[in-house]
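Lesson 9: reading folded outputs for more than one chain in a single document. The general rule is that every protein is listed as its sequence immediately followed by its structure tokens, and records are never interleaved. Here is the first one.
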Amino acid sequence: MRKNIVAGNWKMNKNLQEGIALAKELNVALVADKPNCEVIICTPFIHLASVADIVDPAVLAVGAENCADKVSGAYTGEVSAEMVASTGAKYVILGHSERRAYYHENVEILAEKTKLALANRLKPIFCIGEVLEEREANKQNEVVAAQLASVFSLSPEDFSKIILAYEPVWAIGTGKTATPEQAQEIHAHIRSLVAAKYGSEIAENTSILYGGSCKPSNAKELFANPDVDGGLIGGAALQVADFKGIIDAFK
């Protein structure tokens, strides 16, 4: 059975003290009212060790927002998968649309990052999705197929450790949201691509999250779709009440 997952992506927000306070507040809320899904918070690198130390792993897991495509060495400012894992983090977001757009991460770079993450026992949350022009040209299916090339080179055993996150880039931070019907349609298509590559059993066990202006008000409707297994949450993950409202959509 595939897992239902709600993952928060803090992006470049919260200084260290604010981040620790947010993680503590969320942890208290989830210990008091146990979630009916897996909950992950993906924080900036500077928070990882502190946050991993204070959360209860029974209710809350910790992940990074990125890792380097190199093992180690003279790469000033980079953070390796091994370093991420050493903090106690268990997950890492890879291929986020902002990394693709602003830092020019391509299929080859992301394939390398994915392999290094897996080699260090991190579970990648691998993001795919189209921009507005691609959606308007009805090219979303081919865009996600091309982006999946980064992880479709993996062995079936390694691919089965991947969580996919579909993010309609046109709906991130814009207030626009894919309709539940649009979300289900593309999630089902993504699952069919996985099935064609790895077989129906692995496809059925792959969690596919929706990311793109998911809020407490629309989470229940989005998550009710058979192929939407949770959410990768941006802005709403920075407020405990909003994030908890989305987590509670699985209750």
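And here is the second record, again sequence then tokens.
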Amino acid sequence: MPQRSSWSVDDVPDLHGRTALVTGATKGIGLETAKVLASRGAVVLLGARSRIRGAAAQAQVRGQAPRAEVIVVPLDLADLASVEQAAALIAEEHPKLDILCNNAGVMGTPLRHTDDGFELQFGTNHLGHFALTGRLLPQLVAAPAARVVTVASQNHRMGRLDLDNLDGRAGYRRWRAYGQSKLANLLFAFELHRRAQAGSLGLTSVAAHPGYAGTDLQRVGPRMEQARTRERAVMVANRLFSQSPHAGALPSLYAATAPDVEGGDYVGPDGPAEVWGRPTKVSAARQAYDRELARQLWDVSEELTGVRFDLPVPAAS
């Protein structure tokens, strides 16, 4: 059992003078994360695929934090050109970035490929965020104590990294592919911590997972296949068993702002099986800490995205 926690949004510190980017900020956990960061005084950049949904989210955040500076950044993580454009726009307007919340994702989708030919879940959940973080590294390093929070999932435990079939063309199982993408999130977060540490950078890389939060994420796969019965079943399960998106955002907020967070930490709910509860430090599956696997994933990710981090490779332990 994780250690019990009493942490809440009331514990989020004052964030005036800090800039945060939240991907997937138009709904669900990303939107709730953005609302709290803005209410504490941060300049909040909302990563949004749709300008219309971005404007709607901007209005919602400003409704909760009327004095906040809230900016919509067009960003499609399934398109590396969009990632590059978004990073360039951010770099032009914001010389430093204090918080990067790699939150956006897709789940349980049928076999689809991104504009760059990547399997959709791996391409969006991992490669898009890998490329975004790498392109924003100068702005993160420019901040005095930046944090990168990568949102994973308990489903990483069923993931196995198949480096010979990352595109799904040699066989595809949607939930195994989702687990693979979430395992990749953790391998990346922990390896980024090790490389930042090896480079003596004031950059903290951590991961978080929301438990079971009832958001639109669970409905994406059934909608793509027009599987209405499955979509209705998901909606019923969400109503019966999930916690709210606000509660699901607490681990991300803790990871992004709590003073006791250290590089390589993993934050999730403190309840049974980490399904619900308040945020606390938890442990990932053993394979998420596999340094050789993380190094292999890093090399493949740089090759696939064309984005290389100016960071030293940590010594083998």
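What the second record shows: The mean pLDDT is 91.
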